[in-house]
Amino acid sequence: MKKLILGAAIALAFQAAHAVTLINDTAVALPGTTVAAEPQLAGTVLEDKLTDFSIASLGITGHVQSRVVRSSVDGTLDFYWRVFNDDSSRGSIGNFRIGEFYSPEYNANWRIDGLGDVSPTAAYMFGGSYAGKGYINFQFFDAAGGGQIDPGESSRFMFLDTSATAYNELSVMDVANSSTTAISGLSYTFGPTAPVPEPSTYALMGLGLAAMGFLRRKSKQE
């Protein structure tokens, strides 16, 4: 019996560590994960960029580190972000948001084995008119109002695990306080790009269109 209980506990712990599938209009808790739990997260950094931001009304300044990693296991792309709040800032950061992040799936988490001070507590994917457009909010505040990124602190690396194999820099991002009453300006960040059909696919499409044209002409003649 003890072995069964221990086995179940290990299985649950392993399951909780994996990337979490996001649901429209729902704040989903993020447990954190590691490469040991998800070997497909290991890979090569393709691009890494720092982008400055400011929330002038609160005297907050900082920068966001955006990173694209190609998995060494399956060749797909993972997109990472880490938020830095400057030492000189006069306020805390409670939200990091991305938009126009088009992906077939939305699996989020943060890296326990990565750098940083503060981990996101949850991720919220916007539905309604934003459904399917990849608008996601990583939240750093907890029910007691704590857990925010204070001056001089940085977030842990949060990420979206995707099946994409190509990317561009057309997604957008911003940061905000915990109540989202004060928000930085929008900046561009990395995101998946739609795959371009192979030449053979275009050829097949052309044949299909030609066949459709032939059938239309034939029906008119009859």
Automatic annotation (TrEMBL):
Keyword Signal recorded: yes
Residues covered by the Ice-binding protein C-terminal domain: 195-217
InterPro entries in the cross-refs: Ice-binding_C
Signal peptide per UniProt: 1-19
Entry annotated with the keyword Transferase: no
Pfam name, any one: PEP-CTERM
UniProt keywords, alphabetically: Signal
Superkingdom of this protein's organism: Bacteria
Protein name: PEP-CTERM sorting domain-containing protein
